[in-house]
Amino acid sequence: MTLLEPGTDGQLALQDGFVDLFDLAGDPLDAAVARLQAGVKPTAEDIALLTEAARTAQRAFGEVGAANDVLDDASDLGEDLTTALAEALRRRARAEVPALLGALRAQAARVERSEAVRTIANRILGNGGSDEPAALDSVPALTADLLPRVPSVYDDDEQPDASLADLWQRQERLERVQVRVRTERVEHVAAHLVALAERIVDRAFLDARFTRAALEEMDRAHALWCACLDEG
Hints:
The chain is mainly alpha-helical. Helix content is about 65%, strand content about 5%. The protein has helices at about 30-35, 45-90, 95-125, 165-200, 210-230, and strands spanning about 10-15, 15-20. The protein has a two-stranded antiparallel ribbon with strand order 1-2. The radius of gyration is 33 Å and the shape is rod-shaped. The termini are far apart. The model is unreliable at about 1-25 (pLDDT under 50).
């Protein structure tokens, strides 16, 4: 189509009819695009608008690409952190766990910031972003009441005629059971922590509300894990 100047009446003669130049969209960029599509020779202002729009779109595509890179990095690092967390809990390396939880939280914050930028970039590009889930997936909570209970001497029926040897055997048996149950309590909380980390990473930190709730639960579970360790 040959670019033509409009006539004095605001009409542009084309082979397929007329375009009313005074009835274009109100947005300056939309108007510039409409004039260009209609075959009107672009003005300097039109060229400036279209050039800036192209640069903005280019930057938006760059932000989307950067957000994809953040997700890839977060997914890989999240898996490494989950593996390291499971190993630290298995070794009962109390000093290592807070740093690993902090690293998971930092990755979650990085993804959340990046996805906010992606949302803006997609709006610029005219892409509809996915809405946040209306209902928050439940995050399982673990409390001390849900752990196996450590037995005590009061659980055994007292036998007045029991010999000293019987009492000693009962005490030894009780202590063995207590050690086993305390170990089970520590392992139960550790498994809960690892399961939460896996769910966060499996979602690539993308469900921000679930991730925040899960990280809060992990902080509570970590405190419970430390309390179980202190039980001996």
